[in-house]
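explain this chain.
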Amino acid sequence: MPIVAQTADEIINTYFENTGGVENWAALNGIKMNASVNQGVDIPVEIYQLKDGRQAVIVSFQGQEITQFAFDGETMWGTNFMTMQAEKSDSEMTENFKKQSLDFPSALFNYQDKGYTVELMENETIDGAETFKIKLTQKPIMVDGKELPNISYHYFDTDSFALIQSEAEIQQGPMTGQKSISKMSDYQEVDGLYFPFDMGMGGQSIKIISIDLNPEVEDKVFAFPEE
């Protein structure tokens, strides 16, 4: 029989305790993931997430390293795959990302300190597993000059308390109005912390090969290339 958690707080705290402990998560300063995305062929990907908000996704394709996405704390940018030129994101998208760039290692971690709220919804079945469903409300975002609510839903297995799915409505860009769903499975230990090594995002399967904790990363990984 699953343990019945009474509150959203208990579920979230149990998840972080089960995956390594709140103190250990709080001490984490950064993650580098080596992964593989299958798009007919396996494409190597490096994913960087630092506690100070800097992030980058770098793909290796046909012998080239291409920065698909990067944020250096102020500037958000990526490579246009048509022109292969680096392009900055518009100011509104950049400001929205900046607001949640410090949600490391998770938006749910110490959510109260960030001014976020959570609400426990009715249980739902996800891929055959009964889950606790938690609604997370973050700070509003701006879209076309209008303030919109920033809400996501997170599903925790009622037996293991593992986070197995997160979802939110896309509110900016060409995918506006569609649902963004992330699936997490195959949790494995890395230096005392547990991470999902199998992730599904946007219909793509991301297989994690290795994870380095507190990596030393050069600033140029995140910086917009000034030609």
In short: The longest helix spans residues 8-18. The radius of gyration is 18 Å.
